Amino acid sequence: MLRYLSAGESHGKCLIVILEAMPAGLPLSIEFINQELKKRLSGYGRGPRSKGIEDDKIEFLSGVRKNVTLGSPIAMRIKNRDYKIDVLGEISKPRPGHADLAGALKYNQKDIRNILERSSARETAVRVAVGAVCKLFLNEFGVDILSHVVSIGGVEADTKDLAFSEIKKRADKSSLRCADKTAEKLMRREIDKIKGEKDTLGGTFEIMAKGVPAGIGSHVHYDRKLDGRLALALMSIQAIKGVEIGLGFDAAQRAGSDVHDEIYYQKTKGFYHKTNNAGGIEGGMSNGEPIVVRCAMKPIPTLMEPLASVDINSKKPFRAQVERSDTTAVPAAAIVAESAVSFELVKGYLDKFGGDSMDELKRNFKGYIGQIKKF
Amino acid sequence: MLRYLSAGESHGKCLIVILEAMPAGLPLSIEFINQELKKRLSGYGRGPRSKGIEDDKIEFLSGVRKNVTLGSPIAMRIKNRDYKIDVLGEISKPRPGHADLAGALKYNQKDIRNILERSSARETAVRVAVGAVCKLFLNEFGVDILSHVVSIGGVEADTKDLAFSEIKKRADKSSLRCADKTAEKLMRREIDKIKGEKDTLGGTFEIMAKGVPAGIGSHVHYDRKLDGRLALALMSIQAIKGVEIGLGFDAAQRAGSDVHDEIYYQKTKGFYHKTNNAGGIEGGMSNGEPIVVRCAMKPIPTLMEPLASVDINSKKPFRAQVERSDTTAVPAAAIVAESAVSFELVKGYLDKFGGDSMDELKRNFKGYIGQIKKF
Amino acid sequence: MLRYLSAGESHGKCLIVILEAMPAGLPLSIEFINQELKKRLSGYGRGPRSKGIEDDKIEFLSGVRKNVTLGSPIAMRIKNRDYKIDVLGEISKPRPGHADLAGALKYNQKDIRNILERSSARETAVRVAVGAVCKLFLNEFGVDILSHVVSIGGVEADTKDLAFSEIKKRADKSSLRCADKTAEKLMRREIDKIKGEKDTLGGTFEIMAKGVPAGIGSHVHYDRKLDGRLALALMSIQAIKGVEIGLGFDAAQRAGSDVHDEIYYQKTKGFYHKTNNAGGIEGGMSNGEPIVVRCAMKPIPTLMEPLASVDINSKKPFRAQVERSDTTAVPAAAIVAESAVSFELVKGYLDKFGGDSMDELKRNFKGYIGQIKKF
Amino acid sequence: MLRYLSAGESHGKCLIVILEAMPAGLPLSIEFINQELKKRLSGYGRGPRSKGIEDDKIEFLSGVRKNVTLGSPIAMRIKNRDYKIDVLGEISKPRPGHADLAGALKYNQKDIRNILERSSARETAVRVAVGAVCKLFLNEFGVDILSHVVSIGGVEADTKDLAFSEIKKRADKSSLRCADKTAEKLMRREIDKIKGEKDTLGGTFEIMAKGVPAGIGSHVHYDRKLDGRLALALMSIQAIKGVEIGLGFDAAQRAGSDVHDEIYYQKTKGFYHKTNNAGGIEGGMSNGEPIVVRCAMKPIPTLMEPLASVDINSKKPFRAQVERSDTTAVPAAAIVAESAVSFELVKGYLDKFGGDSMDELKRNFKGYIGQIKKF
User: What secondary structure, in 3-state letters, does chain C show?
Assistant: First the structure.
């Protein structure tokens, strides 16, 4: 069963991750992984720190030889440019909207730095590295995946008439991962405005994965359902407060006849649907249509116009300090989410197809595709 | 680590669940558990089958002696009144919106009954039983939990001025678990109308848990975050397509200064917040405020006015058969969700407080409460 | 990932188990499972209770339809004939060699019955049921498995010149699962003698599994090694105090040249070994030779000539009470161990070959066998 | 739940491990950890490579600040001095007694280096680092742990009259971790002799842990039993072929009256035993007496006098190559095993006592000790 443990503090030496149970024989491209890392750092509305460390680079410490996976655990490291955790001073002022206070209470820490260094979204860099490896895997099975920003500060993108490939191309070119140029312009204006008000913005984004056959995940036990696993993977990303699949919350407003995807059949295609309101998941399993998931991100909780809080030592009120000053990080979160989805899909593939080598996995996969084609 | 496995088919002998790692010494009330089961079956808009089996009753098979937990695995059984799985005929017609087709392909089953018997929401009965045991546990630690229906078919309840206890009382009395009488009336009207159209409705509901101290869950690793775990638990419930915490998707529309909950302190109360936009969870941990989660449920996918589909044997199109005829099941899903949240909270308590007996757990809990009070 | 939870107390209503993740399409034979259960209860040297309940019978509660697995969780129940846990009196006298005292302290139970009802080896009945299902699975892949008693009370069986099938046949016929008739006679004499002395005996037994291809388990992470998993599965059986694989402890006494199995190749056979000192496992993986594991069982800790202990209430010394009066249970433990090994092997097969249906698994398996044949 | 993932190849850049869920506030000593690493590399009978890299040193990459744990994942790295995996040539000759052949078949690797680099016992260096951290934890709760070599090449040490502290002191001073000087001398002679014969030796060793209270582990489910968990942890160490607890295999030879530890009580001590044949574990739980476990290690499978094998490409027989030339590594394995036991004990402590900070854990622990004292 595919699994990983990540480690590292925001101003520690590095971020590190061990990814266990990837099959042997998968070619990896450091360039591709580094590109993905770069995407996480870019985006209009980021502050100077994000930009300063814009050259996050992965280093393989194990599990890979001559750029091909060995089947043994893959350790990846991203060095931190501003390693200074040991000399940084104590913090007694918890910031609203962060893990600061709850973490200090739980772990009995009077220096809040001991909490915020780990709770920081800096950790998501290695989630992106894991996701990049997973994308290379999925690519071998014809799966393509994208993320794009749907809304920022109330401005909504309109992508309903765009093909998958078009959304992907446009999002990758956009400074806000937004596939709707007009909306992007308005979003940037909104960001500039809110920045002037020393405030911050959240938004929503969408992940789509194309090429996943029916049968990933399972209906038989709650913790094996693909929708549940995706929800955990996404809701656990810093600042995510909502996850929806397919129509999501909108499905709750419609009549059943306007929601459920009817089933069709063509000899060449097999079974298919003309709509995808389910977002590609029915009964906890992929149904052959693209997986479509959307997330809501709250605004960045560190404002230049700070918020009321209380010093944990003196118990005196204060105005919360600014540790970081991005105005919005929605495009970055979209990349992290795309990575999280990629990981969960690979996990699902390995659960279904087993396999210790790519040769074996492809043989098993091909056998299954034949089975459902002839079904 | 608290865990459970559930088993059982919709028309099989029974539903069954084994709940492992509950501490010894917790008094259980069969009456309470049966009441919870009853709540799951009630609700305006249910069809005849739900009503016919309205007397779901739990039986303890193990783990309990003289109505007190032993610390050993708790097995619970709910008998099915209409056990007939072995005599029921084959099904070759997959219903849109169900696990039918994806499950048949995945498990290579030409008789779709072999899928739908397990994917059925009938399984949630034992999730409610598990949740009821968990509520009895949480009660010993001063945690109170509720669920209420927020919208059905576009009609929204207004509960923003109601206290926790008031919402709970009203929801328990309402035929739709709705705490707003006016809205309830309109919802019923909407249900009647859609039933006349042979269609179905979904909706949204909210779970609230009061009395959870700061520090349940953890920020240190993605799979230990309370929000992620809740998301998995909820998204894996049949027909749930969206989960949000606190402001949820609405947070994506607001400025940061309008979202983050400021921190205050009073000697008697300790740290607290005046708002709860975070829904009680920051950094993957409870922050001491009530946990607030909302879910979106899609309309029931079995319509009396059926949908287009294709026979898996003949490959001929047909109009999907009606297997069941509830018009809406939002109130039932709310109870299931309340149960799922209860389970995840107990898991979080045991992770944090350890303990094999209730005496030990309470001692550890009390020590922690003292720690954070003096912090 | 294959998993199970078991539940049930010794004098409770029943024993119950849920086995999750067995593929769909495996035919099950109730008769076979009941035969296995019967084997667990037989054996020379058992006391009256074991005999009285000699008719343990499995009932499927879920996961099976028309005697074929559905892919959904399989719940099995064995009713207890002497259900009386609720009326049995309190016990304050811990028996040496049992979980009694440690369990009472851990779970803070003043009535030791609350511990011993679960720690009892009665629980192993459902482990045998799980094992029987697993044997039916393994059988489909050409794996055969046996257990036989190697020593009781110092009397050693000599089976070194016997073929697998011969050991299996003889063990199944023997009153002590012993494949050496002469030794069996001496063992029975030893049992009679020790019974006369109101004492008890332990012994050793061996499990062998034939037909497992190279590559089950993995060398890449400690918790995926087949030898480690088998060791957990076996050491966790009541009264087992030692586990060894292949030569085991004897390997520690020999020179390397006398231990390691040399590698040979024949076109028809592929790679093979002429010796099997490794017991079929090298580097945490099966190596294509039969898996051979041996366990040591301590004597039954309940003696008719009782042992010194202390009442937990009065703190007064007493002589430990007799709860049960088998003289030896080594043949029964051998069956339980055979079942535990079967479960771990199936887990290993599913990890390697994936698969949700038997068709798919067989296709994947066949592909792999072809791969290693052509390697 | 405490967990770790390890990574790294024998001639890769480094070995790396992430240890997740250690509580905050545990002071760590790099010196202590490095001493433990040094112990793993020493021992009479080691070859030149082991000596050449005698200066394994740990580096903390995360989870620790100012030498105190943060509660976040602890990443530790040990650099490899002879990093050259990318330039090393292909290997087509599998060595008997290693993972080589089974691994090549399983992972479909024609270059056996891709297997042996990970299956190498070099990986145990990070298991020792994890164990060292765990020992520092256990030390805070008054637990002391030791390992000592019991036999090499048939020479048995006699330590039955030695106190725990005496065995520990002597083992730490001995070139073979042997607490019996006379036996040590004979063992060295045996090693010299076998080295002259170009052969290798295995042996047995014992782990003892003192100060563990009753109640670690659990009787309620097989996979929570302390003996089972220890067995997995130990059997998964390279070259270990047998594990026994307390009397172990010897218990299978004795009468019950000669095996089970009688129970006594003294006001100051509470419940105790005068013997420890159970090795401190009854019913899957610690019983308050020292934990005593023994392992059998097979001889090192790389002989200077090589063994018959077959080239995987040419299918021609050859004599297996020498990759490494220790004569025995029993003292090193003992240290690895001591580390593995330490990890499992800490896991057991966290399961029982919960706790996110050392303060909290100690408070909970103290409460429990009070409970069992007053029981």
Answer: CCEEEEECCCCCCEEEEEEECCCECCECCHHHHHHHHHHHHCCCCCCHHHHHCCCCCEEEEECEECCEECCCCEEEEEECCCCCCCCCCCCCCCCCCCCHHHHHHHHCCCCCHHHHHHHCHHHHHHHHHHHHHHHHHHHCCCCEEEEEEEEECCEECCCCCCCHHHHHHHHHHCCCCCCCHHHHHHHHHHHHHHHHCCCCECEEEEEEEECCCCCCECCCCHHHCHHHHHHHHHHCCCCEEEEEECCHHHHHHCEHHHCCCCEEEECCCEEEECCCCCCCEECCEECCCCEEEEEEECCCCCCCCCCEEECCCCCCEEECCCCCCCCCCHHHHHHHHHHHHHHHHHHHHHHHHCCCEHHHHHHHHHHHHHHHHHC
